[in-house]
Amino acid sequence: MYDNLISLGITNPKQIDRYSLRQEASNDILKIYFRKEKGEFFAKSVKFKYPRQRKTILANPGAEKSYKEVHEISPNLRYVIEELDQICQGEKIEVDIKQKILADLRHLEQVVTHKIAEIEADLEKLTHKDK
């Protein structure tokens, strides 16, 4: 399923926690962080260096044709990032749903607590009227 990550030597892509991408000179540096195991102080990570792809493009399509050189992300790196986004964003959505459910439960708890207090207050009023 994650062919590009597996081709990098990542045997268990589901253990990926997050990644970072930065540009350094004419290279892109991809760093992949894995989930910490119990007892570890730091998460394991691996680093990959991708040379930026150089292209010559037409800068001025008018009468005087001039060209300029541009550097862009490697197509291989683009495929790896797509797979990383699938893994990392899927987990983020899952965490967001969990947070929403917890927030809803807390809200429900408050509503029920307030309603119980209101009913108890009404009962207290009734017992004072009877005396």
Automatic annotation (TrEMBL):
InterPro entries, A to Z: UPF0325
Kindly name one Pfam family recorded for this protein: DUF3461
Q: Hey, which family's this protein in?
A: Belongs to the UPF0325 family.
Show the HAMAP family listed in the entry: UPF0325
Protein's recorded name: UPF0325 protein CRN84_23530
Q: Which organism is it from?
A: Budvicia aquatica
